[in-house]
Please model this.
Amino acid sequence: MNENAIRSLVDDLIGAWNDRDLDQFISYLDESVIWDDPAMLYGPAIGRAAVRKFSESLLKAFPDFSYCIREPICIAASGARCVIPWEITATHTGYFDPPGFAPTNQVIKMQGVDVLQVANGKVTQIDTFFNVMPAVEQALRLKPFPKSGIKKMIILWSQRSRAYWLRYTKKVKQ
Model:
């Protein structure tokens, strides 16, 4: 694909997402598309059905999710790949499943990039990159990290429980 065709595909893809038209959004994706995103706790979404399920979950948790392109979009000379710098604004008003995070009604603003691979006019892979910690801090209103009180105890208990579980499952697998 040439640069104009890639730019048109990106604009249509982002437009469908921002319009909440998941049927149209999915139509721009290859049947065997892979989407890898740090928000996916259980690995990448593989195939249109899995991408749709993740998209629905994300839009349920963040119904006002707005994806804004930060120029420039970088397009490989081959037309097989492009990098889209973005800024997202979203309010966490619904449950995010999985893992089941309860809504906080907090606005999250963050920046990152999507790397898209394209073949035959369809997106075959999306790799999303962003720093997860600022998003979590904004959603939970934990910045700066609490020095005392119940928030600190909850955070430390959650982290230590998760660390124990990770160590335990590693031992079980060995």
